[in-house]
Structure formats: structure tokens, C-alpha cells
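Quick one:
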Amino acid sequence: MNRRVYLAVDLGASSGRVLAGLFDGERLELGEVHRFANAPVNVNGRLYWQVFHLWSEVLAGLRLAARQFGEEIASVGVDAWGVDFGLVDRHGELLAPPVAYRDDRTRGVFERAFADVPRGEIFAETGVQFLELNTLFQLLAVQHIGSPPLDRAARLLLMPDLFHWMLSGVAANERTIASTTQLLNPHTGGWSRPLIERFGLPQEIFGDIVAPGTKLGPVQARVADDTGLKNVQVVLPGSHDTASAVLAVPACYTPPSKGVAGGAMEQASPDSSQETSAGSSLGRPRPWGVSGGAPDWCYISSGTWSLMGVEAPRPVINDDVFRGNFTNEAGVAGTTRLLKNISGLWLMQECQRAWRHEGYDYDWHKLMLLAEEVEPLVSVIDPDHPRLMAPRNMPAEIVALCRESGQPAPASHGAVIRCALESLALKYCEVLGLLERLGGQRIERIHLVGGGTQNTLLCQMAANACGRMVIAGPVEATAIGNCLMQAIAAGDVADVAEARELVRRSFKLHDYQPQADERWAAARERLTDARGGAA
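Output:
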């Protein structure tokens, strides 16, 4: 075949890129075309995403790609983080810049929400973990404030939906990103209209759900004229960055055992009208392997967040999932991503930022070297402690949490980083055990993909803490998965199984074997104690 080029616009919470996937029929090569910074800006106490700056940078990247690859470009797709959204009116006007998920407007929203609809009923309807930053609770916060944009809105577009709309002129809600809202019913694959009605949210802003691989049409004329992209299709990848990253996991693929067209999966919970609360019965635990072939691998998509989970053939909604605060998010090809959100490289990023203000300009490699020089497993913290969500000073908070739990306070920058990384690895071990209990079988391999694969110290710590082989790579899993979904939509790659085989052929992977050390078992116990002591 002639070489095809698929453009992936990959938007992250700290940076964005335009990348080119070059496919010759045998191997996929990924090249970065344009990189740009991204960060929310504080305006009168509200954190907004700089969406117009991002759009200008996306256009700049597309211009560079058009000059470099010309008529070889087949399509473009956008992936981004979940939960955040823009509101568009009936005239096609964006009513306000999207607010960032770390904004504090949702503080205290749980109490108001659960007074209207009990927590258990929300979970039975959506299967999604409870985080104040979820779209549902952002909308309830906007509703409580009485924000005019919500009253005027005609459509709600999640972040990648918003950029697909800018590219194509078509407003569409892609399924994988919609599943992060806590407003999608995983059994039907559509919006939870009863939940939307019970919360008094405007029904009309929630448009039809479309599947990954959908072709929205060519880039609209004004974009084509601006960038030089001619006859280039806008194709929806797994628009949630984790959905794209999981597509690029270089594992053997077992197709879902049962589902409906477009990826809505078999119901795995009882009647949602049943009273449900922590400790009530959402349903007897039902390992997905009984009829669906549970995978013997799990993934960690490692970046600002660590998303750790398995690819299940259907939603798993029961008491254990509810109590463990796991989430059921839509994957590609009709799968469900049963996963847990864990804090990730955010801990290091914020330490790096705080120390930069003090005059220490550490790069990632230097931070790893500093951490390697200090004694291991001295102090551990819960990396998901609420005080680490948006701290004024991350290193100071880590030190304080250690002291408050009766452990030695990290005395150097390297000790702070080592504490953070070891705590993450221990959290991975904890979640691994929960996934094995949910699935009813041992997980043999951990696939770690994304930016965290470059942190070799964290990869080895994960193997040691979990007692499992960690297969690290590819680094650019999200962009690769974005390009692969475009290739599947074009018919250049047959399916997910062939896509993953292509990843194994095309990109270097690194294996980390677990190294026995009894101190990890003791550290696991201290993590439990630290969580209780600092709660």
C-alpha cells in the first residue's frame, strides 16, 4: 500500500501535541510535528482552560503537518482528558471557556447531590466512580451557582468533542469520553435520561452518542484553507486519552463475549430501582471471566494520572466495585475499561514546580537520580490523599503527611521523590489485588504505557511492589491508539487484535522482572496505617 499518514491531536493537562502516524502496511512510525504547553489560567478565582490558545496551537501543528506530508494525510482525530466540557448555544457560539477540573467550584457538591439521588442509585445507573470533578458534579455546581451559560446552552461538548466540532463543524458526543461524565448508562450505551431528569439538568444539551471510528466528514472549508489540509477526514478515535492508550496496549486481545451494536454491553447489575447504598446489595460479585474470558493482564496508563484497570467484555457493577470506587468507562470495540483513578506523575510534576520556584531547576532524569541515592522504603503516604489534589506546595504536604502518620519526614528532595514513587507503586499493588478479586483470577502481567514508562525507577518499583512482570511501552500509547483507531476506520488495519500486533512489531518494549525484597510487605502495611492516620 502507499504510505498513509494519520494525524493525532493529543491534548493533555500540561501539554498538547500534534503527531503523525506513518503507516506503510507493515509498521507504524510516530513522529512529533508540534508541541505546545497547556495549563489553566486563574481569572478572579476560577480556573479556565485556555481553549483558544490551544486551538491556535492545533492549527499551527496542522499547518506544519500539511507542509510535511501533503496528500499522504488521510485523517485527523483528537483525544484529551475526561470530564471537562464546553457549552455551545444554538447559533454555534462557545458560551464560556471550559473550567478546569481542579477548580474548587465542586467542593461540597456531593452532599447536595446525594440528597436528591442517593449515591448507590447513581452508581447502579452509571457504574462510575465518585470524584467531585466528574462532569455530573461540575454541572450540578454550575446549576447551583445559577450560571447563565447553562441556561443558554444547546449542546454540551467534552474537550475532544469541542475540538472535533472546531475541525469539522459537527457537534458529536463520542462514547469513550462521554463515559467519564457519570451520566452515561453503560448497559444501553446512551445517556442516562432518568438521571438527567432527576437532577433537573437540561435534556437537550446531551446529543446522540457516537462510537469510536465514526467519520464526521472532512475538515471544514475554513480550516482546510487555513492549514492546507485538503480532503482530510475527521475521524473519532477513542477520544478519551485513556481509551486510546488502552487500544495501544501490546497485549493479546480477546473480543467481548456479548454486547450490542456500538459497544453497549451486557447488564451486570440488578434492577436499578433497588435501594442502594454503601453496604447494600448491588449484586453478587460476578467475575467477568465466567462467560467472557477474563484477561490475565492489566494496564497502567501512566501520566499526570495513573489509570489502572482491565479490559472487560461488559460493565461490572456490584457491591465490590462500588465499595472499591472503581469505574466502568467505555473502551473501543465494545469493551469496558474497568479501572481505578490513581494519582500519578502529578506528584513529581508539582514537586518539580515548587522547587523551580526555589531555584532548583531539576529535569526528570535528575529527580530519578536523586531518588536512587536515598534509602528505600523509609516513609510512605496515600498518593490519593485529598490534600495532594491541588496543594499550594506539594513537597511540604508530602513531608507533613509523613510526620502526621508517625513516620520519618523525608529530609531531602530525593527522599521526597522516592516517597512519592514508592507510594505510587504500593498503590498499584493494592489495586492489583482488588482487580484480581473482582475478576476471579490471577493477573500475570502489568502493561505500563504512557509517559511513566520513561521513569525506569517507577517501573522497577511497580514490579517489585506487585510481584509481577511489568512490560513498559509504548511511551506514546495515547497518540498511537488515536492513529490506530483512524487506521481501523479507514480499513487499513482490520481490528483491535491486528492493531495490537502492529504495536508489538513497531515499538520497543522493556520488561521489568520483580526483585524480591521483604521490605515491600512491611511498607504495604504502613501505607494502610498512613491512610488511616492522615484521613
